[in-house]
Amino acid sequence: MKESSLPPNPRFLRIIKVLVLLTVFTAISQEKSAAQTVPDSLWIKESAVTKWDFEGDLNGWTTASSSVANLRATTGCLRGDSVGIDPNITVPAQKLQLRGADGVAVRVWFSQASTLQLYWSNEDGGFGQTRFAQQAVPSQQWTTVRFNLSANSQWAGKTIQSLQIDPGTATGMTFAIDYIAVMDHLQDPDNSLVSKTYDFNTDAQGWTIASAHVSGFRWEEGKLKGSSIGIDPNMTSPVISYASQGGIAVQVKSSVNATFAIYWATTAGGFDQTRTASLPVTNQGWQTRWFDLRGYPTWAGKTITRLRLDPGMATGQDFEINSVVLLKPQAFDDVDGDGLNTFAEKLNFTDPTIPSSLHGKLAIETWDPMPYESTHEMVADSAFYSAPTSIFSLNDSTTGQQPGTYYATRIRGYIVAPSTGAYRFWVSGRNGVELYLSTDQTKYRKRLI
Fold first, then answer.
1. What is the pLDDT of residue 88?
2. How far is CA 405 from CA 19, 408, 411, in A?
3. What stretch of H or E contains 193?
4. Which pLDDT band holds residue 41 (cuts at 50, 70, 90)?
5. Were both Cys, which of 92, 204, 240, 425 would link to 60 (CB 3.0–4.6 Å)?
6. Confidence label for 344 from pLDDT (cuts 50, 70 and 90)
7. How many Å apart are CA 219 and CA 140, to the nearest integer?
8. pLDDT on residue 372
9. Residue 306, Cα to own-chain centre: how many angstroms?
């Protein structure tokens, strides 16, 4: 543990660890013609400045209104009943202190057609008609409501301190909210890199289970869900005819740490160990896993006839799939060398040609295998300076237990200190851990602390 004094500007933080090596820097459905769209669930969860997705609890949202009954978190949603004329829920009591965002996105379901209302408070005052927006929501279908407030004088340039959602104005209705997200950008991201998508908004889109090792497989709340009860759980897509290109992005959630695998069948053969790829998933909530398959000879240039997802080999694992996206080759390019592929940058509205970081996220890279038990041995191996086995992002600095043996993980990003003062950093890991902090926004002045 180390105490350090930081001024309020970006600093580069890095942690290295072996067996798990760690580095921390302070820092998409149905086809709609030939052009595919990026699922809302993928880009909103990837690029949100702040989000509440109610996975397991209310995330601190409460109600003081007698017009809301049975407020609860179940199946990954915030649910309740509107029993009066003024139902409302509010964000936790602590001030958000948000500034510079475009607005708010809410994915919601109403039992009858009604209106979703958003209120906010800022330095000028509390909830009221001057800080208010609303949109109509249809009956009994999941709808993503986008409140674009970038031109609202009571939002733009203000410090947003708290939020209130009024979920419907019709007495006797029920509501469900999948997520509430504060967004830097509310326009659709560039979908030119998307070849085919499954977003499961309305049904399972032909995906089925043929494995006795999956229990309770179902479509629910716009997701595929189930439990692994054996060593070979899997789900398969409908039959397709797809000229393979870059690879696949899968948005997944697991109740345990596991290895997530994809298989593919082609006109040359069915599912087997020559047509598969895998990446780790953790029990840290929703994650997007990028399968860059351009270098796989059984994928590149082949006609894909079916896909299979194996969510893990951990008996008792609960899993959910939010979207499966087939991507073009250039989606996996990292032109600027910042660890973010082109598609991830487009989801987050950053420039793929300029090194950048993602707001509120850390990049995590893994090298497997890395057969050492110290950071000294690991950094002496030239393999550590080659392309990592996998790259993805974290919404916080908690990685959980990673599946595997003798591999290295590096986490890096930027931190911005809210004010000048003393800050304490800590890291834990097995066998070897190193934590670096730069004296400026570059990695070149990092020092071991």
1. 94
2. 7, 9, 18
3. none
4. confident
5. 92
6. confident
7. 15
8. 82
9. 25
Q: Which run of H or E residues covers position 253?
A: strand 247-254
The model's confidence at residue 365, banded by pLDDT at 50, 70 and 90, is: confident
> Do residues 302 and 265 lie in contact, with contact meaning Cβ atoms separated by under 8 Å?
no
Statement: the pTM of the whole predicted model exceeds 0.70: yes
Cβ atoms < 10 Å from Cβ of 5: 9
**DSSP-derived 3-state class of residue 46:** helix
Q: Identity (one letter) of the amino acid at 414?
A: Y
Cβ pair 342, 330 in contact under 8 A: yes
CB-based contact 342:370 (threshold 8 Å)? no
Residue 351's contacts (CB-CB under 8 Å, 6 or more residues apart) are 336, 345
d(Cα 438, Cα 417) in Å, to the nearest integer? 13
Average pLDDT over residues 194-208: 93
Residue 256 to residues 89, 90, 317, 319, 365: CA-CA distances in angstroms? Answer: 31, 31, 6, 9, 20
Rounded to whole angstroms, the maximal C-alpha distance in the chain is 67
Give the pLDDT score at 18: 37
CA dihedral 412, 417, 423, 424 (to 10 degrees): -30
| Local structure of 61: helix, strand or coil | coil
Residues 6+ apart with CB under 8 A from 38: 28, 188, 189, 191, 194, 197, 325, 347
Query: What mean pLDDT is reported for the chain?
Result: 84
pLDDT at res. 22: 34
Q: What DSSP string runs through 158-169?
A: S-B-EEEEEE-S
The answer, yes or no, to whether the previous bond of 418 is cis (omega within 30 of 0) is no
